[in-house]
């Protein structure tokens, strides 16, 4: 089979398409003929040797933690009825998704109905799962004024939909006119370009003095700080990423002086979740099948172009969910 292999930590050029032996499932595993593989910003961190919230992998390796496709082989102990079924799975620490064939524990599978496409399934089993963790913590309600940063990203587009669905007033902020246009298309009450000087004033003007009660921040750095400062007393800041490269700076003084609360929905909170993340995956997949949440699929890259996919993510040139198509 063909697979992306990484032999050293470093830049996108370390991701190389190679011919490798076909894998075969061990006890309790299945083999998936990959139709779609998810690509994450975290993948770029792991590629550089950072490991992110996880332990840096041993090299050489094949990146990729979520795949959707057809089960074409099973190991002993796996349900024989899975053969020929379309499934999606999170591969966990084992990775291996940037390939034509991938192995997954049978317990990690979600069987897909015929009307669910592989790209959307991959988006929801990973990005959707994280979105559910954010919503669980943030608990947006109809009375909220919700500001979402990175609103045109894979998670941001889902958060917009969820906040609108409960009746909240939603402000989506994103970088650049194309991303702002996407946010507007998704139905946000207000769409603001955070590349504009003085964008927080544009938010205040759009809201006509109504205060922000909930910030969902996936950017961090100065943009996250500016968003924090828009919160009213008793407002909530829920952080879910740092696409800018650094986290939003805040202190205990901010919490006391501003009367706000702040928490992270990712990192240790999700990795050490009691009972694991399976319940979040199930919730995300149910939201997909019921069409309560519809992931935005941005760019689709060929397997051979994995390096280009990483470069696009790192340069923040993508919208929605980025996938590889072997």
**Overall 3D form:** globular
Q: Oligomer, anyone?
A: single chain
Percent of residues in beta strands?
25-35%
Classify the secondary structure makeup into a structural class.
alpha/beta
Biggest beta sheet summary:
7 strands, mixed
Terminal Cα span: 10 Å
Low-confidence stretches: none
Helix content: 25-40%
Task: Provide the residue-averaged pLDDT.
Answer: 94
What does this structure look like?
With 326 residues, the protein is an alpha/beta fold. It has helices at residues 41-47, 118-138, 154-165, 177-185, 199-207, 221-228, 252-258, 268-271, 278-289, 306-314, and strands at 2-6, 15-19, 29-39, 66-74, 86-90, 101-105, 109-111, 145-148, 169-174, 190-193, 212-217, 231-239, 261-264, 297-302, 321-325. The protein contains ten helices and 15 strands. Strands 3, 4, 5, 6, 7, 14 and 15 form a seven-stranded mixed beta sheet that branches. α2 (118-138) packs across α3 (154-165) and α2 packs across α9 (278-289). The longest helix has 21 residues, at 118-138. The radius of gyration is 20 Å and the shape is globular. The model has no long low-confidence stretch (mean pLDDT 94).
SSE arrangement:
Blueprint: E1 2-6, E2 15-19, E3 29-39, H1 41-47, E4 66-74, E5 86-90, E6 101-105, E7 109-111, H2 118-138, E8 145-148, H3 154-165, E9 169-174, H4 177-185, E10 190-193, H5 199-207, E11 212-217, H6 221-228, E12 231-239, H7 252-258, E13 261-264, H8 268-271, H9 278-289, E14 297-302, H10 306-314, E15 321-325
Parallel strand pairs: 8-9, 8-11, 9-10, 11-12, 12-13, 14-15
Antiparallel strand pairs: 1-2, 3-4, 3-6, 3-15, 4-5, 5-7
